[in-house]
Amino acid sequence: MNARSDRRSPTTLVISIPSLLLLIGMIEVAIGLIVYKVSNGNANSLWLWLLETISSTVMTLLLILPLLKRNQRVLEALSRSRITAVQALEREQELNRLKSKLISLVTHDFQTPLISIQGYISLLCQGYPNLAIETQRHYFNRMELSIDHLIHLLEQVLLIGKSDFGKLQCYSTKFNLKDLCDELIESLQLRSDRHLIKLSYVGDYEIEADSGLIRQILINLLTNAIKYSPNATPIRLAVQHKKDQLILQVEDQGIGIPLDEQPYLFELFHRCSNAQSIHGSGLGLAVVKASVDAHNGQIRINSQIGEGTIIIVMIPLTG
Question: Which of 46, 165, 250, 254 has minimal CB crowding within 10 Å?
Fold first, then answer.
């Protein structure tokens, strides 16, 4: 038998002490009966022995019980430590998985726009100064879009990192939400003229919230709506600003989200089974969820396969 198999666990120790006391008591009773018979049934000897046995047993229990209680507290502390250690290990494994995913994302999604920028710079260097002004402008526009894409990816990675470590905070300031919506729509329309983004706005333009997180919510919902919708179909953004609540609704006529996958939609790196052929990082909706949670808001989804998706974000306002 090796050393490990011969080692007793603390739990076994707690159970064996009362059992040992019981065994000792039974042995003492048996000895008492033998003494009683040897003494020719002398009742005085039996009663004397019983009193001595009871008193010694009580004294033993009084000495042992505090040790048992202390031992139990030690075991409970060890159990809590074990649970904490297991949780820490699981957390570390999850962080390693996240790190691997992020490295894969960086090496792929970041590489594509960088190669695009490098290519356009090479074309400009080779053709300058004989390139037409329109051609130069086109190259610069494409590089600008690639840079915007890189910045957006970097913002997503940083925001997810803060959210995962519990550091994502909401810093509310007053800003013009209507101007922000117009700016984002104009930028997205420049990137893709295959969809018309329609905005309807009800309520005051000035709101008090975290403008950076609101931007992330809008740009990711609108980008996904464009990405997963057929060409020439409209994307609708409806904004309703009440006194104590902001409602953002993005509606598309895209491929839809399978019903059984909707509960996992906002998990990091999750991609729906019907979207595998469309390029994506799986970060966008996780960023949306983290940004909404930072505002103590809620998200609702209404989607059917082949009929489109409506995502509604409800954010409580402080003023």
Answer: 165
User: In angstroms, rounded to a whole number, what is the distance separating the alpha carbons of residues 190 and 37?
Assistant: 108
Cα–Cα distance, 17 to 250 (Å, whole number): 67
DSSP state of 229: S
Query: Are 319 and 208 within 8 A, CB to CB?
Result: yes
Helices 43-109 and 111-127: angle between axes, nearest 10 degrees: 20
> Euclidean distance between the first and final Cα of the chain, in Å?
72
Rounded (5°) CA angle 8-9-12: 90
Separation of alpha carbons 313 and 239, rounded Å: 10
CA-based radius of gyration for the chain: 35
Query: Cα 146–147–152 angle (5° rounding)?
Result: 100
CA distances from 203 to 79, 129, 166, 239, 243 (A): 56, 51, 33, 8, 9
- Residue 297 per-residue DSSP state: -
Cα 252 to Cα 310: distance, rounded to the nearest angstrom: 7
The pLDDT confidence band at residue 6, using thresholds 50, 70 and 90, is very low
Q: What is the pLDDT of residues 41-98, one digit of tens each?
A: 555 555 555 555 555 655 555 555 565 556 666 667 767 777 776 776 776 676 666 6
Distance CA 249, CA 311 (A): 6
Phi, psi of 127 (to 5 degrees): -95, -20
Looking at this protein, which amino acid is placed at residue 56? S
pTM of the entire structure? Answer: 0.62
Place of tokens 């970097």: 154
Q: What is the mean pLDDT of residues 276-295?
A: 80
Q: Would you state the structure tokens that stand for residue 240, as one six-digit string?
A: 């309703």
Q: Is the dihedral of CA 217, 221, 227, 231 positive or negative?
A: negative
- Does pLDDT of 299 surpass 90? yes
Own/partner pairs, 45-54, CB within 8 angstroms, 24+ separation = 53/25, 53/28, 53/29
What is the 8-class DSSP label of residue 275? G
Place of tokens 């040790």: 67
* Model pLDDT for residues 247-282, shown as the tens digit of each residue: 999 999 988 888 888 888 888 776 777 666 676 667
